[in-house]
Amino acid sequence: MDNFLQNMKEKQMRNIKENIELYILILPVLLHIFIFHYIPLYGIVIAFQDYYPGSPFIAFDGSVKWVGLKHIIEFIKSIYFVRVFRNTILLSFYGLVFGFWVPIVFALLLNELANGFFKKFVQTASYLPHFISNVVVAGMVISFISTDGIVNDLIVLLGGNPIRFNIEPRYFRVIYTITSIWKSFGWSSILYLSSISSIDPNLYESARIDGANRFHQVRDITIPSIMPTILILLIFSIGSLLGSNTEMILLLYSPAVYETADVIGTYLYRDGLLGGRFSFGTAVGLFTTVINFALLYTANTISRKRTDYALW
Question: If DSSP states are collapsed to H, E and C, what string results for the chain?
Answer without folding.
Answer: CHHHHHHHHHHHHHHHHHCHHHHHHHHHHHHHHHHHHHHHHHHHHHHHECCCCCCCCCCCCCCCCECCCHHHHHHHHCCCHHHHHHHHHHHHHHHHHHHCCHHHHHHHHHHCCCCHHHHHHHHHHHHHHHHCCHHHHHHHHHHHHCCCCHHHHHHHHCCCCCCCCCCCHHHHHHHHHHHHHHHHHHHHHHHHHHHHHCCCHHHHHHHHHCCCCHHHHHHHHHHHHHHHHHHHHHHHHHCCCCCCCHHHHHHHCCHHHHHHHCCHHHHHHHHHHHCCCHHHHHHHHHHHHHHHHHHHHHHHHHHHHHHCCCCC
